[in-house]
Design brief:
By secondary structure, the protein is of the alpha/beta class. It is built from eleven helices and five strands, in the order ααβαβααααβαβααβα.
Length: 247
């Protein structure tokens, strides 16, 4: 899915995604889900938390391309969560079983006191959970790894040494190293504050991730393939062995 820009507003992107979800629902009802039924990992999600300058966005795009999935970046998710109309559209895209699953999961989080009682946080996790319920989603940022069911997806943290990230940001945005350093540190601090405020967690808590990738010497392609392989192995392990070679 292209990123939100002035040329591609969020409304157009959401409309396209709604059409895809509706098409898949109809295919499933008509028994034409083929690939979905054969490849169980398409029911899952990938949540990517990334530091500025770590190449996390590029990795998200690449792993989505490898899987034939869609990317939901932080801008898209945020705009859906803050728009009543768009948020309603997304939630209504599920069938009753899916809506019940989302309601139950969100209520469990609220009752556990593991998230903020802020209305934005409540709307945000409803949107994140609905997107993950559809499957085939690479979700970037917004604390998705802290609220989605860890059994149904892969939670990834993409990092790199600060010096490496500063140089990448300077090159990408044509900034001086001083300006790039300021931007990187502000981004890190904002991310820490956001996760702490809404999810009462530390964004750098390793227990919140299944995979942590340092991109100082790891390419975008290698990182994307590693994420894909972890996802497939996780779901493949839940499929009964029909070969007769099991226990």
């Amino acid at each position: 899915m292209p990123r939100v820009t002035r040329e591609i507003p969020v409304e157009h992107m959401l409309s396209r995604q709604m059409n895809l979800w509706e098409m898949r629902r109809q295919m499933a009802e008509e028994g034409k889900a083929g690939e979905l039924a054969e490849e169980p990992w398409h029911r899952g999600y990938i949540a990517i938390s990334r530091q500025l300058g770590s190449l996390g966005n590029d990795i998200a795009e690449r792993v989505a391309a490898l899987l034939g999935w869609e990317v939901f970046d932080r801008e898209l998710v945020h705009q859906i969560a803050t728009s009543t109309r768009m948020r309603t559209q997304v939630i209504e895209s599920l069938d009753e079983k899916g809506k019940d699953a989302v309601k139950s999961w969100v209520q469990g989080l609220i009752d556990s006191d593991s998230i903020s009682s802020d209305r934005y946080c409540y709307h945000l996790i409803r949107v994140l959970t609905t997107i993950s319920q559809h499957g085939r989603a690479v979700i970037v940022g917004r604390g998705a790894n802290f609220v989605l069911d860890p059994r149904k997806g892969v939670r990834v943290r993409v990092i790199a040494p600060e010096s490496v990230r500063i140089q990448r940001v300077a090159d990408a945005f044509h900034l001086s190293l001083r300006e790039a350093r300021k931007r990187v540190r502000e981004s890190d601090n904002n991310q820490i504050a956001f996760i702490r405020q809404y999810f009462h967690r530390d964004v750098n808590d390793t227990d919140a991730y299944d995979l942590i990738i340092n991109t100082e010497f790891t390419s975008v392609e290698a990182a994307a393939r590693a994420i894909r392989d972890v996802l497939i192995e996780r779901y493949a392990s839940t499929v009964p062995d029909k070969s007769g070679k099991g226990d």
